[in-house]
Amino acid sequence: GGGSSTRRVTFEADENENITVVKGVRLSDSVIDRMKEPSSPSGRSQHRSASGGVNDEELKKRIAEELALERARRDSEAQKRRLKQEQMYVRDEFGRLLERERISSNEHLTRAILRERAATEEERQKAQRFAKQLEEKDRELKKHDAYYKEQLARLEER
Length: 158
Fold this sequence. Notes:
Blueprint: E1 11-13, E2 19-21, H1 29-35, H2 41-51, H3 56-157
Antiparallel strand pairs: 1-2
């Protein structure tokens, strides 16, 4: 907060009586205007005290409060930027993860299709072998049938 801050802020006037901020501290226009008021320390204090205006301590307190507000605003903006960066990072990571999952699932699907094709081909070859064996058995049975018919015909002739 503004009251308990131990940070020292130093500034100096340049040749045009403009205020130069040291150490990168930004001041609002109202603070700069108040700081541009008569620069003699004794005159400033006497003038303000006589008119019931702001004394040096109050001015320092206001400056510290405004600096604290400015610091809080910068911190908030920095936090918003970090949050946006983190969101973009998460979105990118999520996209990469989805892409890996898609590739992986495509690979699994491709492997399953290849296994199924191989199994189908194996079944087709097995069916062809069985068909050949069946034809062979059928030819054998026909041979045996012809042989026995011939034998039966011979026996009947005798």
